[in-house]
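Fold these two proteins, one after the other.
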Amino acid sequence: MVFLNDSQHMNHPYFPLFVIFALATVVILALLLIASKVGPKSNNPAKAEPFESGNPPRGDARIRISVKFYLIAMLFLIFDLEVVFLYPWAIYLRQLGVFGLVQMGIFLVILTIGYVYMWKKGALDWD
């Protein structure tokens, strides 16, 4: 194990990362301490409810949710994440030239085919 003297600690490549983590920890602890000491403390029955919306809860919380809901949520995430790939492409479009334009065109065609397929299968119909 190599021991570093004080001047070498500051030149270590991970030193700035350590400083950021240390500052973040200090800020988080300070904010938690301030909130616990200064923050309002009130105990009432509404605070004990699972959802403090002002409306009393009705029915059972363990209801069955349709699989369509989860399917729509997963499709949204998939298509949303695919669209994220458009941002770096748009930034480097001039550097990529026609080759990058054709590649993104192919990517968008495949994405559109997947979208149309899911639409035709009825995965996007909310019944």
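Now the second one:
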Amino acid sequence: MGDILSIIAKRLGLGLITLLVISIIIFFAVELLPGDIAQAVLGQGATEDNLAALRAELGLDRAAPVRYFEWLGNAVTGDFGNSLVSKTSVTEAISARFGNTLFLATYAAVIAVPVAILLGVLVALFRNSVFDRVANVVTLTSISSPEFFLGYILILFLAVKTGMFPAIAKIDDDMTLFDKLNRTFLPALTMVLVVVAHMMRMTRASIINLLSSPYVEMARLKGVPAWKVIVKHTLPNAWAPVINVVALNLAYLITGVVLVEVVAVTKRDFPVVQACCLIFAATFILLNLAADVGSILTNPRLRHPK
């Protein structure tokens, strides 16, 4: 138990250091953008007094390192400042949309993860069969197709032609859970088709790689059915790479949904850009940490390092 906690503590410390380095890159990348932020916000017709006032308000008259530590300290408490475009709190603006993002990502993940693992086990069980070949063709097609193209196809057949689901996914807090699930089914299905392909292929590859192991051969010689060999002997040992690819795809589900409008960049709304980039980075780091912990807990060799 002590070894596990020590490894987790090291992973957590490395994650925090990584996030700190990323925060420095995010902040100073905005600093290196060409042009005057105040001029971009107020426009070419702004007077020098107005520009000077906005620079003072944004702290642009102070040294960049000072502003970085102030921004980082506020970000730790959840305060990312105010949007330069809407003049509202960045935290409130993001949280209002991020809730919908998490809902959609969770919806897609609840469908995608069990389906991908089940399909991965089945294609490994019936590898080189017609089912395996069809599954590989479908998944490769899904991976190769842009998300917007898949979305258009689903809207055409499931919304326009059949009317089974609404073409526009607009939800609010007053809706019931069923209404929310119904309205967001098409975007969730679009994301499912993309991530299922990655997770299924990794599950298949991991299981097939383990089928040549001596303990699997011994189980086969004892007459253990093929499905039981995969479920009881290979799948538990294939969890580590599967967990990693699941974590990466969950990060994609959360950050792949558009959270930052183009206007945030074109209007030089750097508080929104910085906040969203930091949230995206924290999401990837947190899910990778969860994948590392999951791999450690499912792999005895990692739990007892030499």
